[in-house]
Design goal:
Length: about 290
Amino acid sequence: MRILRLITFAALPLALVAAAFLPRVERPASQAIADIGPAASTGAMVNLALPAYGTRITADSQYGDHVGPHNLADGRTDTGLGCWFSRDHTPLPCAVTFTFAHTERIRGLRLYQAVWSGSMYHTRDFAVEVSSNGTEWTRIATGSLPDQNGAHCDVACDATGRYLRVVVLTSYIAFQTCGFAEIEIAGERPVAFGSARLLLNGVAPTISRDFAESAFAFAGPGAQALVERVRGVLTVSLIGGETASLVLPVAVGDTAGEALASMEVTEGSGVRAVFAAGGARRSLALGPN
């Protein structure tokens, strides 16, 4: 999974002074930072159980609508009102099935034990199965939950499927048979990064000075910054009262957007920001003096 991070570094505001004595070279700023954001792809983990991804959840059995399978993706793990419970005396095996909007790559699950009085509705042993058509199933993992309200169990796997089901094999009490408080499904979605753009005070700057092809003085409306590039890392030094932003187009699956990391320099202070790129990883490091 690739993300934007904030890291603290020391300030170097005096770097702006040196730039004033260097030869002036005009050219678009995009040329200077073209190597920071080449298009790249990687993977991001999302919870495929959530209805936001178009997932439907059904169960072979349920005690009532208020404790139906929809509760398995409501984020509640500490109350019986947020659980799925089977009907009493449900014969095992009993399954809850997740139907995805598309075929998904599944990398793991986290299952939370049901929450009720004593061992009621507590699941013991379970299996995880996937299918491409909803009729033919392949078992990819098994596990067990302790007899404790809200306890969780992590299951690692690597499989693809349009359908996933968790099959309860045994329980702690035959009468109040089985249940779960929550089931999280880690799915890997493709992530694409576009080229990064550096903004000063919200405007794309121009390069006013260039020396040794490794450092640049940027200028925008009322903004100044010295940018140094060493082995793919851009270091930006700003004067007080200015704002620098790094805009990075990001697409996760079918959803596109922009990741924005920015900083604002208060009057009289200096800040050094480091924009680093390595493969598909992008980071913005900021720190006041």
